Amino acid sequence: MDNNNTQFPKIIIIGGGFGGIQLAKKLDKKEVDVLMVDRHNYHTFQPLLYQVATGGLEPDSIAFPLRKVFRHQKNLNFRVADVKQILATEKKISTDIGDFDYDYLVIATGSETNFFGQAEIEHFSMPMKTVPEALNLRSLILQNFEEALIEKDPKRKEALMNFVVVGGGPTGVETSGALAELKNHVLINDYPELDIKNMKIYLIEGSDRVLSPFSQEASAKAKEFLKDMGVIVMENVRVNHYDGDIVTYNDTQSIHTKGVIWSAGVKGAIIPGLDKAEVVKGGRLKTNDYNLIEGYDDIFAIGDIAYMETKDYPHGHPGVAQTAIQQGQQLGENLLKIINKEKPQPFDYYDKGSMATVGRNKAVVDLKHWKFQGFFAWLTWMFVHLLFLVGFRNKVVTLINWIVNYFSYDRGSRVIIRKFDRDAMTEEQKPI
Amino acid sequence: MDNNNTQFPKIIIIGGGFGGIQLAKKLDKKEVDVLMVDRHNYHTFQPLLYQVATGGLEPDSIAFPLRKVFRHQKNLNFRVADVKQILATEKKISTDIGDFDYDYLVIATGSETNFFGQAEIEHFSMPMKTVPEALNLRSLILQNFEEALIEKDPKRKEALMNFVVVGGGPTGVETSGALAELKNHVLINDYPELDIKNMKIYLIEGSDRVLSPFSQEASAKAKEFLKDMGVIVMENVRVNHYDGDIVTYNDTQSIHTKGVIWSAGVKGAIIPGLDKAEVVKGGRLKTNDYNLIEGYDDIFAIGDIAYMETKDYPHGHPGVAQTAIQQGQQLGENLLKIINKEKPQPFDYYDKGSMATVGRNKAVVDLKHWKFQGFFAWLTWMFVHLLFLVGFRNKVVTLINWIVNYFSYDRGSRVIIRKFDRDAMTEEQKPI
């Protein structure tokens, strides 16, 4: 298949995440021929997936049609396609809808859930990296409660009301906080027949503190917020097994639960074919300072999938939206320079800080010279997330939802549109 | 299983649609013990399903959690359950989560798509009576366009861009109008590589006019609106077959299409076990003037599933939300009268009129003494639909979407969250 409309250099971008979009925009109105491919026809605003999973936001508010993003960009074609392999020597990618030629290839595939090879956990626990996964989790939470209502066996009833979030990074902290609010403000009213005290939310973190990449101050405050909201925070704890009924941790201890949310790690979403590339820890592709994958002279990687060692970041940059955005912008400019035989600029990360929200009026913000927590941090978090959310309609609808949720203490999207079929999963995913 | 909390009479309502909700609300704070069961945990606002299917609204805006509706109603329990059978002699219903006893039973199950026994059509065409079905259709429309983009075979490309709506009632008219707007304002921009002129939208109606239950004036104007928007309106046309590729009509003619939307009829969603009931045309249960199913003294039917002959409506009441709402309210009052050994009131339908929208600024309204069409009708339609939409958040989010859609000519929810798998359908539903 041919994507060649012009004689301009052909750039293929794999992935319409934060990095891919920023890069493509930098190429608007330039003399290049851009093809973006993505498995989905929409951009996912991943930082808010946990709010979809807990009924606070509609899925459509955090999914933005990629064709709409590039509606006015004449030099870009978009295809919904699953990239099967990179044929680097032929300068081609092979996809489920055919092959495409490139002069320059950019891997912006982001990351996927890392189960660290534990097939049983992968099989039974809920990841939360895509919109369908967030919707599955939303259905599961509600289905568990509907089932608990009619369950006679006390052990199974307990398991249906227990939720274990594994991994105390921003996603784990935000998800367990949102679950606590769901418990305290929504489920308590929705299920008066159940004793809501029996719903337990555990947050299990392997290191000695939640939000370990943040400041000590932020970690401590986040933990305090979580405890205030009733989350059982367990640090220095390692999960061993989960068989669909019982989570085992620290070798000897266990929790009965039918709801394990896995946010313990990510790995780069690698595409086969980059045999010369060096894949480092976490499945990231080693690049030079210009995001060029080492071993190639025409294949680049940006965002979560890229691993670049610099003086300030000797172990690579953080796997956050800002890295992807900044690398996408920089590479956009660099590609034009490379095409024009000019010298590209090495990437220099500007750390805008980190933030995570725990619940209403409760968030933590780490800036370079200023760390703050609580109500003002929570306002900051909301403002920044609205700012980066793609699309005017999405911004307005999300803001309305947040206002309604805030004043009503409610979560309006607690609907089971598609039932999550535990057994279907058991059949399909069965790798064990 | 026992749902008996008190010594009060036990009323079971099957179905949380317009009728079931109104009925249950009339029983609030009364000395009765109410159990509502529904297959879903939410109420579906069916009149706006077509806007979900065409990317204009989020699914969550028209789905409202039933537990939230009855949050403050102490004498009502709700269960997500699939009713398998009515055991009338034992005064029980049998469901997938157990049996429940009743003193009075109300069937408010509404209607389902009627394929009139045509298994092949049922197999290959898209119904639109539930939220998942509307989402399937949304995915199909977008997937067809993504596929058309890469299709080389001109016949198949044509089939992917042709849409045939069968049935010219309000749903068919509204859906084909919305498809035309999607074509004229959205798809034309999203797919500049395709020649949008090749997208054809057919509306096929068996009788001599679209909106046949409406006034002649409304039918004529709706047809004019549709034609202006580019819909090919075919009246007095009967569909014979659809094999997944070709629709055959009037015995000899055909259209190549991969998208057939079936809105040609509904039938009552009957539950087995009512052996003494008379099932009339369209699968409706014959009732007396008090919504009591003939042959029983404790089982009632309201809304789409009920068939009541009265002087003014010798062939039953129209299958619309208003009938269900009014019958639900009346039966609520009557049940309390029956329990108190008072004389119930016969049902008297108050016709508030009919309306359908075709596109922006284009709607038709039939009131008893006033018929009007166009911009003011369109405003009226929106106002009435917002009024009946359940929930403050849903009203606000829907209004915002309508405003944004109106000024931007856009449809923001054109995302394929779950791919519609034609082949999976072929495997699962295979009744032929």
Furnish the topology, listing elements before pairings:
The structure is a homodimer of 432-residue chains.
Chain A: E1 10-14, H1 18-26, E2 33-38, E3 42-44, H2 49-53, E4 63-65, H3 66-69, E5 76-80, E6 83-87, E7 92-95, E8 98-101, E9 104-107, E10 111-113, H4 119-124, H5 131-150, H6 154-161, E11 162-166, H7 170-190, E12 200-204, H8 216-228, E13 232-234, E14 239-242, E15 246-249, E16 253-256, E17 259-262, E18 266-268, E19 279-280, E20 284-287, E21 299-301, E22 306-308, H9 321-339, E23 354-359, E24 362-366, E25 371-373, H10 375-388, H11 392-408, H12 422-428
Parallel strand pairs in A: 1-2, 1-9, 2-5, 9-21, 11-12, 11-17, 12-13, 20-22
Antiparallel strand pairs in A: 3-4, 6-7, 7-8, 10-18, 14-15, 15-16, 19-20, 23-24, 24-25
What report would you give on this structure?
The structure is a homodimer of 432-residue chains. Chain A is α/β, with parallel strands linked by helices. Chain A folds into two domains: 137 residues, FAD/NAD(P)-binding domain (3-Layer(bba) Sandwich), CATH 3.50.50; 215 residues, FAD/NAD(P)-binding domain (3-Layer(bba) Sandwich), CATH 3.50.50.100. Chain A is built from twelve helices and 25 strands. Chain A has a five-stranded parallel sheet, covered by helices on one side. In chain A, a hairpin with a 3-residue loop joins strand 14 and strand 15. The C terminus of chain A is likely disordered. At the A-B interface, strand 4, strand 5, helix 5 and helix 11 of A face strand 4, strand 5, helix 5 and helix 11 of B.
